[in-house]
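Hello,

I think I submitted the adenosine-5'-triphosphate job twice by accident. Can you confirm which output corresponds to this input? Input:
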Amino acid sequence: MTPLLEIEDLNIFYGAFHAVHGVTFSCDEGEILSIIGANGAGKSSTLKAIIGQVPRSTGTIRFAGSDIRDLSTPKRIAAGIALVPEGRKLFPSLSVEENLRVGGFPGRRGSFDLEGVYDLFPILREKRRQAANELSGGQQQMVSIGRALMMNPRLILFDEISLGLSPRIVREIYEQLPAIRARGVSMLIVEQDISRSLAIADRFVCMLEGRISLSGRPGEVSRDAIADSYFGAH
Ligand code: ATP
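Support: Only one job matched these inputs. Its output is below.
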C-alpha cells in the first residue's frame, strides 16, 4: 500500500541556516505518527514544510501519491492536509462558529461539519456565539482543531497541542483523537509531552539537531533508547 505521506531526503533552510538535514519518513493512511525531539530539533519546521510554509526546502514530499512540494499552501489544503498551528492562530474577535466556518470549504462535503465538531467538543456548541478570545486556552485549542477538521482533511498536522494547557483539558482533547482517526483522518503529532504523544502513536520518529535519530513503534523501543536519541548519547 502506498503511504499517505512520504517524505524523502527533506532539507529545510532559513537563509544560510540548514535546519533540517535529509529527513525521510512516511505516514500510512489511518496512522498516528508522533514526531518527538528537544527544542530546536526541527519538528515544527518539518510540519511547516509539509503544509508549504518554509522559505526553502529540497527533497520530496508526496501526498496520496503526488509530489506536492511545489504546490502552494491552499492547494495542499485542498489536497487534504490541515495544520493545527502552535499558538492556535484564531481570529480573536470572531465567534467560535465563525472561526469554524473559516475552515469550511463551500460546497465540500466531508466527514466533519459544524455538528460533527460540536459532537466532538460539546462545550463549543454552548459557546458558539462567543468571541474566540473569551474562551479558555483549551477551548480555543478545540476551536483550532475543529477549524482544521472543517477542511475535511485526510491528514492533520498537530503542532504542540498541549502547550500551556491544563492536564485535564489536554486529556479531553486527546480522548477525541481516536474518534477523529475513526473518521479516516491520519495524524502527525508534534508534542513536548512525550509520554502522552507516544501513548497514542502507532509509530514515532525522534529528531535531534535536524536529523532523525530514532524511529519505531513506541512499545518496541526502550525508554533508554528514546532518551538517548532525544538528548543525544554522550
Ligand atoms: P520547538 O519545539 O522549539 O518549536 P522544533 O523542534 O519545532 O522546536 P523548529 O522550530 O523546527 O524546531 O526549529 C529548528 C531550527 O530552525 C532551530 O534551530 C530554529 O532556531 C530554526 N528556525 C526555526 N524557524 C526559523 C525561522 N523562521 N528563521 C530562522 N531560523 C528558524
